[in-house]
Specification:
- Helices cover 36% and strands 29% of the residues.
- It has 226 residues and is α/β, with parallel strands linked by helices.
- The protein folds into two domains: 134 residues, D-Maltodextrin-Binding Protein, domain 2, CATH 3.40.190.10; 88 residues, 3-Layer(aba) Sandwich (D-Maltodextrin-Binding Protein, domain 2).
- Helix 5 links the parallel strand 7 and strand 8.
- The structure holds 1-O-pyrophosphono-5-O-phosphono-alpha-D-ribofuranose (PRP).
- 1-O-pyrophosphono-5-O-phosphono-alpha-D-ribofuranose binds next to strand 9 and helix 7.
Length: 226
């Protein structure tokens, strides 16, 4: 049995064509069903639905053989697991180039970010991405007070909780609707395939087959976009 950990939403929708290229079709629709273990057209492949932030944990500890997770989540969990080199026991063979977005700094419209960033000044930054934000502002030599939030970060600058937020931006519509301006792009984000290293040894042939099919599909799609 090969178990693949996925999260609902953008990643799930974007991974379906890649799974199909590996001959795998998910038989249940996660938006219609409350099932957390989804069958596929292959009796020896199943999909687990987990929270995005839990995907590295499931794969690291072998609850799933492989998973798909955003680089943002990998960087944050790598840090909370105490390693900058990534999460121990996780093999990261492929950038799937799906669920593409960016992590940026945003402030209230009209806020003087350049002045606030001047050496010596102090800013309060609200974010779910504490490790990424800490590294970014440290690299600029700017002292920031970080406030950890778990969602709706856009509210922080609007309510005076923080001067700035560090958050995912895709279309930019959420920032716009909340009168916020993207002032700095920290990094581009996409989803990556992660594989449990022990599973890769024990189930090498079926896992390699999936990795190779994904790699070909990603390459073909990139070439068609050029
Ligand atoms: C992210 C992010 C923003 C939104 C940006 O949230 O936190 O709220 O997407 O997208 P946009 O630029 O296209 O408007 P997501 O939907 O991933 O859910 P989350 O709030 O649970 O992180």
């Amino acid at each position: 049995m090969i178990t693949i950990a996925l999260s609902k939403g953008r990643i799930f929708d974007d991974i379906l064509p890649l799974l199909k290229s590996a001959g795998i079709e998910v038989l249940d629709d996660p938006e219609q069903s409350r099932k957390l273990i989804l069958d596929t057209n292959q009796s020896d492949v199943r999909v687990l639905l987990v929270r995005a932030t839990d995907v590295p944990t499931y794969v690291q500890y072998g609850g799933a053989d492989m998973g798909v997770v955003g680089k943002d989540t990998l960087l944050e969990s790598g840090n909370s697991f105490g390693s900058n080199a990534g999460v121990a026991g996780l093999y990261q063979p492929l950038d799937l180039q799906i669920a593409k977005c960016r992590i940026s700094v945003a402030v209230r419209d009209g806020f003087d970010y350049a002045a606030a960033m001047k050496q010596g000044s102090r800013m309060t930054v609200a974010t779910k991405y504490v490790a990424i934000a800490r590294d970014f502002f440290a690299s600029k030599g700017v002292h920031v007070d970080l406030i950890k939030l778990y969602g709706s970060m856009e509210l922080a600058p609007l309510t005076g909780l923080a001067d700035a937020i560090v958050d995912l931006v895709s279309t930019g519509n959420t920032l716009k609707a909340n009168h916020l301006t993207e002032v700095e792009r920290i990094m581009d984000i996409s989803s990556h395939l992660v594989v449990n290293q022990t599973a890769l040894k024990l189930k090498q042939a079926p896992i390699r087959k999936i990795i190779d099919a994904f790699a070909v599909a990603v390459k073909n799609r990139t070439e068609n976009q050029d």
